[in-house]
Amino acid sequence: MFLQHCEKVTPLKHDPETGFLEKFPTPAKRDIIKIVLQTLLDPEGPKDILSSNFAIRWVLECFGQAFTLPLAEHELIRSTIELYRKWINQEQLTQTFKDNHYNYLQSLFGHMSLLFQIRKENNKKDLEIQKDLCLKIIEIVAQFAKNYGSELSEEIWNFLLNLYLGVVDHFLGQKQTENGEIFGKMLAPHLLKLLFELWLSSKTKDISMWNRLLFLFSGWKKYQETVVQWTATTYGLSNCVIQMLYGPSEGTDDITILLPPTDEVKFVPSTFILDNKTLVFFFYKTLHLIGNPNTLQNPRIFFFAMNGIWDLVTLFTRIGSNIPQIKKTTTTTKSRKNYPDHPNGNTILNLFGQWLFESVGLNREGFEEGTECAYSTLSEIFMLPQKTGFKKIYTTSFYESIITAFENEEKYGRSIAAILFYTSNIFTSELDGVYILIPFYLHWISEILMKGHLPKNCAIRSELLRRSCLSILNTLICLPKYFTGLEFEKQFTASNILKNFKYKTFNEMQQLIFNLITQGFVNEEDPTNACKFFWTFSIYLFEMKDTPLTFAPELYNCLIDVISDHEQIKNPKWPIWVIECALSVLKSCSLLTEIVMKKNPNIIPNMIKQLLNRIHQIIVDPNNIPMGVNNETIVCKIFEVIEDHIILGKWALENNALMDQLIELIELSISDPQFVKKKKNKQITGQTKKIKNSALQLFSRILCLAGTLPIETKINNISSLVNEKEIMDYFNISQLEMKKRLRYLSLNNDKLILLFEEPNNYCNIDKYNDNDKEGMRDWLSVKNRDEKKTLLLIRDSNGKYCWRLRFRSLPISFVKNEINKENLHDWQGEPRPPIYKAFTPLSGTEENEENIKFNRDQINFDFFTINEQLQYDCLTHSMGLEHRLEEVYRFTEEETKTIDIKVTPPKNKFACNNNQNLEKQKKEKEGLEIEIEKEEGGGKENGKLGGKEQDHSNKSYFNSARFFLTAIGLIKLENEENVEYLDENTALIENLKEFDQNYSRNTHTFGVIYMKKGQNRVQNIDNMYNNQTSSKDFQKFITELGWLINLEKHKGFKGRLDHNKSGKFVPYFADKSNEIIYHVSTMLKFDQNNIEQKKQLLNQNYVTIAWIEDSRRWNPKTIRSNHNSVFIIIRPHYSGLYKIEIQNFSKTTNVEGPLENNSFLSRHILAQLVRATAISLDNSGFFLENNNNDNPKIIRKQKLNQLVNKFKLNLNVKDFYSKTFSNVREK
């Protein structure tokens, strides 16, 4: 029966002159075979038995019957198989056998195929034995084809192919007995694998053979194994075709067939190599073996067929997404440039579109799983970035299929979920007319996020589907404000969804999006989705910042509720990283503090109060729950959030209730637990060093804010670059004289003060330009220039600040409460000194924020040094008030009544010209005043004390500095423990130079690359580095990232910066926490013959921003170096919006917002959010690389403390006052 079937379906015919032993009784056949086998295998037996063709044919006739013996004789069969293996591989053959080897191969293979015939008496055990024997034969045939395939004639190949076509069809194409069905399923995957391997090895282009395979294959499709084998074979062929079409960076250079493992066996992959013409022929023929999968009648088989198509489609759609290391090849660069980037979506639809659209249109009952797979495949294709648009017929069919599914949940429930999951970026695509689908998507997003209703028979996990819906919602946030009054198209008049969609315009959709965000979060239970909601809050707030922000309180409350939930302490709903994410979002929203405060002044104060309550819950714990790392992290993060909000303006200082609560919490965070318990009657858990540092840092910033002078510079952070060397050069004095004139003091080990006694009437005129020298001489000739002046250089965690003090006598009635604009001294009447540029803020501050644009007033700074952050911290610590924070904050008059400090403003447009009060006061009682000068100049009459002229001259170099220390109480006896002198030696100066390299803010360098259309192709990527021009859109984006600075004048940036490579001008940005230099590819020094230098500079940045004027996919691996870990990719959208992609190659750095992958933004928030995201990613990467989460200011404070401890003198009282009051000149 087996042989008859093979003859029926193939051209193979049985030789009637063979098989004469077939009618012998089984015992006789067995004995004959055994005797012949023993004789041939006997090493001492005759060697010339097979010396003639007759003998060979006779022996083969005997052994042929061995494969028909009952399985009880399996050992005899196994021995025969082993002998055949040797003969097939030309082992132990006589010369006659060798000469006619290929003539006997057909007999050898034909005999072995008899073993596949089912024995009637087989039981389960026999089936296993027969399976093992058959697998041995399959292995022999496959190995022979691999080793000798190239030597075989077409005749032998056709014989083998026809033979196993018959074998496979015997099991899969014919009705079988029960044992036959079982045995067929056991062997089916192995036989199919062998058949396709033989087919690929044969390289046959015989059309009759392919037609026979196609005819028989149609009867095998009812088996799952057939579809699986077809998928694996087509997949391997496709991979090889892809490399042929799209270059060596894609696909594979050989055909690899890998079947998925089963419960019983893990298949070994097999590889083949075909020439290009044969490869394309095989690909086309194999692809169409499956025919139209919609004709399959078994739902499970239909699903496997559609899943196979999905696998093939993803091979094409992912081209360009993964760039492996390109192998070295002799192919020239010129030839490689001919490779296309990736296939057009229309090309893929031409191959598979008919099957897919027919499948989603039929949606046969019971076939929902396969229909879902078809929808997923279509979604994958239409989300593919396109060089040209999709054909209108394809786009229309896709939209109609989506609407049909969304309208009919009962029938398309599984498919609805698949559509939402696989089209999460549909509205950032460039599909024509895609916004017509918005009402339908919003309907299902509302059902899932707000109502928690999943589509019927949904096969996707709820948290994943909700995440996808939220991603879609993120892409819709910018549309209401961008399209405003544009009305929705309502062409589908029969749509029930459109009938219930009450919003006519995009602008009206704004409230719906807000409701989806807030109410959707209330229903959220997944931590990852919760974080995604948080960043959605942030994007929505930024996008709508120009609106009245009536919704803002609810968004803030959603975040605060997560952070301040009291139950989180004992029974947490969210893991710690969710709370950290909520705090990170609040931190990013600090950029909007000024806007939010103007529109609703209660939001930010209420938020801070609730954050303070959260800290109170943690550190004041009646149950004595241990602090733990998690709670410590939360407290520190809250302090950071509060700091970022209150440093923007003085609104916080004007809110007394808020400041009282804030100061109390800071006190609880830094004070000794026993002290708090005794004074406040509160039990605290005890603070960690990290919490104390964070609290002290916050308090320091509050003091900076409270002490800021009213100078309207709008510079974010004034930290002088002046150092000891520049002071010495400026006054043209020797190092020895410099040492006589200075003292170093530390205050509480965290503030270091240099006091320098300036030489009288001295200025190095040669330091000035010729145009300024005459003015300086005039200024020096003004009377009353003989008063003592002291220069203060203060270093602390926030930076370095330089002050000049001038000592005079003024009327005693001129007290603090009377200081106002009317009685300030006139600065207009005397010449103004030209200032040496090393001391001007634009070249003497950390950021040198020159050329400040964006609605900033153009301000000329030419006074000596400035300090926008005069700190109460200096004074309060010096008076030993660190444990009386409330009193320090209020800074009561009682504590300063003996000190009269007059702040003299710079000589500019803010100065006043009114001396009337001064003239009156000259007739009154006279007293002592210390004038803190912001600019050289402002000649005043010598002061008088008690109505008599006083001579304040002293031969000591340290006279006026000592006078200052005495006047403000720094050398009081009660401050002995707080004030320490440092050893003024060379080692200290060198250590200070090193210390000054520690930045007080985070510094960043970001690469910004610009790609014109077509330059994102692998072959053209180097052309990007040659770009010297760019679009106006990109240029505007650069100006919004920062402002332009001249590197020759800009000093003090402590981040990574190479002046020799960066060019003369670079974009720069600075705020109170960050400094950024942007290396823009179009602005760097250009050398067409040496682009490696530009590559090196751009590739040394942890975060790179890429602006790409092309919608096609680009993989950053084409330019990435070991330093590049994150790429923020910006693509201008045809609608005028911008699509953001974030490619993260770091295994440790998480994308922490505010932007996420596939964000969709409008222009007015693009640069701001890209910059904030880059900072967040760079900070995250820095902390991980350095295993340090500390704020730069905290690190600076710790190093300053170490420096002070290293050089402080630890003087006793006698030596302390001796050093203070000794006559330095006499030493």
TrEMBL record:
Record key words, sorted: Coiled coil, GTPase activation
Pfam family, one: RALGAPB_N
Presence of keyword Coiled coil: yes
Gene3D superfamilies: Rap/Ran-GAP
Domain Rap-GAP per the UniProt entry, residue ranges: 992-1203
Keyword Coiled coil in annotation: yes
InterPro entries, A to Z: RALGAPB, Rap/Ran-GAP_sf, Rap/Ran_GAP_dom, RGPA/RALGAPB_N
Annotated coiled-coil segments of the chain: 908-938
Superkingdom of origin: Eukaryota
PANTHER family reported for this sequence: RAL GTPASE-ACTIVATING PROTEIN SUBUNIT BETA
Name of the protein in its database record: Rap-GAP domain-containing protein
